[in-house]
Amino acid sequence: MTKVFVRGLKVDAHIGVYDHEHGRVQPLVIDVELDVAASHCEALGDTVNYETIRTAAQDIAAAGHIDLVETFAERLAQACFDDHRVTRARVRVEKPLALAPHAAAAGVEITAVRG
User: What's the whole-model pTM score?
Assistant: First the structure.
């Protein structure tokens, strides 16, 4: 088993349930950790390329407004399962401006397991 991770990925997204959040972009900070059924990796094709995680997050953000960070996290976890070797995805999505200046960030962390 191999763990593939991306930490601190910054993505701008149209996200939020409140009226003042509609029509504006907000930063997200994303951490992803994947359990990958791979060992003895010698080449990029032997494992999950973390560029695919960045691309998936950017594609989800570009697809249009999302109300909840939970929805964003779930969509990203499911996108990670596009690689059949991924058996578990932990996705953490932080909204740094959600409670500013009272908190550094607020968000959600989900763990999804391939069914």
Answer: 0.93
